[in-house]
Amino acid sequence: MTASQDHDSRLVHLVDELCQLSGETEWVEFKRNYHSAQMIGEYISALANAACLKYKPKAYLLYGIQDETHEVVGTSFDPYTEKGKGNQDLLPWITAGLACRCRRLTMAGHAMGMRILAQKEGVL
Fold first, then answer.
1. Distance, CA of 52 to CA of 69 (rounded, Å)
2. Which residues contact 62 (CB under 8 A, 6 or more apart)?
3. Cα within 13 Å of Cα(122), Cβ side
4. pTM of the predicted protein model
């Protein structure tokens, strides 16, 4: 198994696990596609805070998943090419704006032939 296949396998396992939840939670949010940089920052902040309040070590913002059905639908959102305010790269812009000391792991890969993205937030 190549590193890329292993990465995709871990992402598929994480997505499968989170999609088994009966619905979105305070610490898990499903989105189909991109929202504004400001909105993503607000989601991440809210999810990370809620995870702390619920004693969860991580919060998840998943792109490429249908909200209501948890069906994998894929996404065109790429956080590595999107820009925040002032044409700054999106991920550093979001990180700089967070008041909490969050550790972010962005996992992009493919499930069922479609691109999906999971942003995992953990408080240090």
1. 26
2. 15, 18, 28, 29, 30, 31, 116, 117, 118, 119
3. 7
4. 0.77
